[in-house]
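Forum: Protein Structure Q&A
Topic: Joint prediction for protein chains with partners

I've read a bunch of threads here and the consensus seems to be that you should model interacting components together rather than docking separate models afterwards. I'd like to see that in practice. Below is the full input, 538 residues plus whatever partners are listed. Could one of the regulars post the assembled result?
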Amino acid sequence: MSSNYLDIIRPGINTTFQDKGRDHLYHIGIPFSGAMDNRNYLIANKLVNNNLDFPVVEFAYQGPHIKYSGEKINFAITGDVIFSIKKNNAEIKGNCYQSYQIENGDEINILSTNKSVYGYLALGGELDLKFQWNSCSINTKANIGSNDGKKLDTGQRINFKKINSNKDVKKINYINNKIENIRVIKGTNFDYFSEQGKQTFYEKEFIVSKLSDRMGMRLEGPKIENIFNTNIKSEGLIKGVIQVPADGNPIIMLSDHGTVGGYPKIGAVASVDYDRLVQMAPGSKIKFKEINLSDAETLFKLYEMETQNLLSQI
Amino acid sequence: MIKNISNLGDAALYCDFGNEVNKSINSQVIKYFKTIKEKKFEGINNLTPSYNKLIISYDLKKTTFKEVKKFIEKINIEDSEKTKSKTLEIPVCCHENFSMDIKRLEEILKLSREKILENFLNKEYFCYMTGFIAGMPFLGDLDENMRAQRLETPRVKVPKGSVALTEQFANIYTFESPGGWNILGNTPLDVFDSSKEEKPNLINPGDTVIFKEITLDQYKNYNE
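Posted by a regular:
Agreed with the consensus. Here's the joint model:
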């Protein structure tokens, strides 16, 4: 154990440790979890010379205020985030997508995400966290993962197992582009909805509701009319599936979703748009655009190439 | 047998075994699930068996819909190893401290408390699937005269261990969670234990479950 650690002065609203998540446990009721915005998670780790699958601190809206103790390390923040670094009573404004060195007694104060939801804080080294099913991603609903499956709290101390010897400072030019059109593939219960319901789904605007979290994104707007049955026999769900319950308001399943559900599925968000979807803050407008399977596959391949390309530039 | 394979989004196969809910269809789903798991096809990750569907998720970085579909169509479920299913006895206490919806059930089912318990206890139920929340088993089938709808307004918090009924199924809330099922009793058993990574679930699809009544005293002393 190294003598490097973090003290949580203020935890923020929904601050957890996340990594690549768990991809093989749906059958026992355990969802994917993991970093919501995968691209920003990977970039954060790369900026501090970590392995790409190391856990990071994920925060939503307001982030944590942290005091660091120990030897010099690097940290980096990704997303669209406003934060400051406090060194010897001098406070400087930080920029995302570049790494900074911090030393004993320095503080990182993550004030908020800017018109987005999630941000990532990577620290150069390995935190001493508990792994469950090869992941320390916290699932607060089932209390699974590191930190007893709970959000970070005031006064907590997080130890490092070791810190990185490579302390090169890195930077990349990257801008999170915002999208309004979310591409979707027709769902398995698409025909449960009336012609008008289908039209509403593809042509009208929806607003992201405040009742959105890591489990799901609720949308408000025109009601989608179901003419067949507002329930189905419970069956499996995946990330990005859009269910429409009896009230006609769509809900998009996100990384901590319940593994089975009984509402008709009108569509599923194309994987290429998932990282950007989760960043849409309450109040944002969403429009769905239909896309076929093969286009979705091609677009994802391009997105993945772009991610790899970004990582190789760091 | 699988009646139709389609895609759910761009990273999952949707295998449809029909619309009926019965043991024989569900056993097929479970056989497919176990066989696919054994074969470890590159790129396939999550598998979600339910009453009459099997959803096969895959990593779009490693494979595609076409490849996974081809693999599934070629699978012969007969070559899967005989998988063991077990019969489990689950202690349940139906004392008024726990049976939060007994009055409602008496009214809906038009049966007395005694009759409801007699109909429910000491019978074999089949585990169709686990999920929604970690480890929650969906057990069936309840007798025809025991079938009630969900609560109109779901509870925000259902206590851990609650044994509850809806339609033809019984389930067990493996931890405190929101929920709308009719609560009949509570089990002191840990039906889901995340510290046991190999086998976190006490009850798995294909298992048989029998509920045995225990008294409040037995319940209180259960874990001592």
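Chain B has a mean pLDDT of 94.
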